[in-house]
Specification:
three-stranded mixed β-sheet; CBS-domain; mainly alpha; two-stranded antiparallel ribbon; Clc chloride channel
Length: 592
């Protein structure tokens, strides 16, 4: 009956308990810490930029496109890269890269534990890289930093691994919201990329953290939306074709950029020097790229504003796209610290600015906006995040349908063309394969009676221990364990060779009947109407390979269930996905 009551408790839409309210309350604290970290990172980037290029202590916003660069400025990103290389080698190697893969790896493989070094060195290293001209965004570093803060707070409290993961992601969502003012996109990013589940126990605290961060940044008078845009396009067949076309083009760009980044990383791996020096090589390329087009340096938010305003000409867009792609790929492949989101927006927007000349007429900046979101969604394999991110960045809900059409097209292209995204490829190269498809567990949909063995060979309870040993030793026995039943067909337990040996060693007499040996209080059974999800847990907890299946009333044996039977649920799911069947057929003509 205990199994029955436990099964009833689990038979609900969700398994979340009131404990989620405690984690949500902790998420409020995590969010506030994430907001402070986000503000600190933005100010550190501005400070580093002013020191590196203007030799002044200032937190003023700087447009890299307006800076007059000369041959000597090539050394600025090289010096910044050297500083970061030293930080990574003697501080923490986890600050290398763009942050999100490292957060995913910590969640899935590191029990969501990040140390204090990451929380301190990640924003510092990113500020140095971006401030000295690195063509990166602030979102990856702040996601990693916010996640580290959430993890540190969780490590100081008595929480489970899943709760620690939730607080880590809550910190990441709060940090992203702080930088961009996009709470909905931050929540979607958590769902599509970081949580690897879709449950209230994780969604509610993460949503609380993102909302609190948005309220706090509003109270601090931080700008929102960052890039106001009022343009749109009427829905039409030519328009729809254009939305899909720009999405496919963005998907192709996503695939190209991903391949380019990892080709550069492979090239750096072949160098006969320590990885600490690699970012300096990337710094040289950044400096030279700045001489070609200064707009390619830094976070480049001014570029996004110009594209959405329709102020970027095709020739300038091509130069920006090529320059940004080259220096970003090489610098990221060198293992320096920086984010990918803002560069993807810029490169995608530049592609959209070039393509707008051959696409249907729309508001200025409309096609760059769609290309930005689609490139982000295709590269990160997060179409919903990219869609809502673009809507919140611009404050324009009228472009929601075109955005989702373009992002879905880009997503379809990259999913069919590439096995892994720019985020998961790095993890895969470390020997860990990640599946990002969320499905209902077939164990939660399949009952015991659908997979159990119905024709069961049993052993009578009157059989002696000696007879049981000879029975199990017979060569014709096809499996090692058998249920024991009394004269009325009720299951009393299971015998197998280890049990017989254990009883003999404990001094049980060889003539003792099994009915006297089997402990009645240790009988673990399954019921025909139970779902496999709970039964699989029971098998694991009892550390047994088989369970007798008995009726609810009377406890009579009706079947036998083992791990091999459980696998039938998986096989059936595979068959449903692979076998194609036609149920509706044309009626044959009646004979005359």
């Amino acid at each position: 009956m205990a199994a029955r009551s436990q099964d009833k408790r689990r038979l609900g839409d969700f398994t979340t308990s009131p404990r989620v309210l405690v984690i949500a309350a902790i998420a409020v604290v995590v969010a506030s810490a994430g907001v402070l970290a986000g503000i600190a990172l933005l100010n550190l980037i501005r400070l580093a930029t002013n020191i590196a290029y203007f030799h002044r202590l200032s937190f003023a916003e700087v447009d890299m496109g307006s800076i007059q660069l000369g041959p000597g400025t090539v050394l600025i990103p090289v010096i910044g890269a050297l500083i970061v290389g030293l930080m990574a080698r003697f501080g923490s190697e986890k600050i290398r890269g763009h942050g999100i893969p490292e957060a995913i790896e910590a969640i899935l493989l590191g029990r969501s534990r990040l140390d204090a070094k990451v929380a301190i060195l990640k924003p510092l290293s990113s500020a140095v890289v971006i401030g000295t001209g690195g063509p990166f965004g602030a979102e990856g570093p702040i996601i990693m930093t916010g996640g580290a803060i959430g993890s540190l707070i969780a490590q100081a409290l008595p929480v489970s691994d899943s709760e620690r993961k939730t607080l880590l992601v809550a910190g990441a969502a709060a940090g992203m919201t702080t930088v961009f003012g996009t709470p909905i996109a931050a929540i979607m990013l958590a769902v599509e990329l970081l949580l690897f589940e879709w449950t209230p126990r994780s969604f509610i605290p993460v949503a609380v953290a993102a909302i609190v961060a948005e309220v706090e940044r509003t109270l601090l008078h931080m700008p929102a939306p960052l890039f106001p845009f009022t343009g749109s396009m009427e829905a039409s067949v030519p328009g729809l074709l254009g939305w899909v076309a720009i999405g496919i083009a963005a998907g192709a760009l996503s695939a190209l950029l991903t391949q380019l980044v990892y080709a550069c990383e492979d090239a750096f791996l072949k160098l006969p020097i320590h990885w600490m020096w690699w970012p300096m090589i990337g710094g040289v390329v950044i400096g030279l790229g700045g001489l070609i087009d200064p707009r390619a340096l830094g976070v480049g938010y001014a570029n996004i504003a110009d594209m959405l305003g329709g102020q970027t000409l095709a020739a300038a867009a091509i130069t920006l796209l090529v320059t940004k792609a080259v220096i970003w790929s090489i610098a990221l492949g060198s293992g320096t610290s920086g984010g990918v989101l803002a560069p993807l927006l810029i490169m995608g927007g530049a592609m959209g600015a070039v393509a707008s000349g051959v696409l249907p007429t729309a508001s200025p900046g409309f096609w760059p906006l769609l290309a930005m979101a689609a490139t982000m969604g295709g590269t990160m394999r997060a179409p919903l995040t990219a869609t809502f991110f673009a809507v919140e960045l611009t404050g324009n809900t009228h472009v929601l349908v075109p955005l989702i059409a373009a992002c879905a097209a880009a997503h379809a292209f990259t999913v069919l063309v590439m096995k892994r995204s720019i985020l998961t490829e790095k993890i895969a190269r470390r020997g860990h394969h990640i599946v990002r498809e969320y499905r209902i567990d077939p164990f939660a949909l399949t009952r015991v009676e659908q997979v159990m063995t119905r024709q069961v060979e049993t052993v009578p309870a009157a059989m002696t221990l000696h007879q049981a040993a000879r029975f199990l030793a017979a060569p014709e026995r096809g499996h090692p364990s058998f249920p024991v039943v009394d004269t009325e067909g009720r299951a009393l337990g299971i015998i197998d060779p280890p049990s017989v040996i254990r009883w003999r060693r404990s001094g049980t007499h060889r003539t003792a009947p099994l009915a006297e040996i089997l402990p009645p209080d240790r009988l673990v059974v399954a019921y025909p109407d139970e779902y496999l999800e709970s039964v699989a847990d029971r098998l694991s907890e009892a550390n047994v390979a088989h369970l007798p299946v008995v009726s609810r009333e009377g406890g009579k044996l009706v079947g036998y269930l083992g791990w091999k039977d459980l696998m039938r649920a998986k096989i059936r799911l595979q068959e449903e996905e692979s076998q194609r069947t036609t149920f509706l057929r044309g009626r044959s003509a009646r004979p005359a």
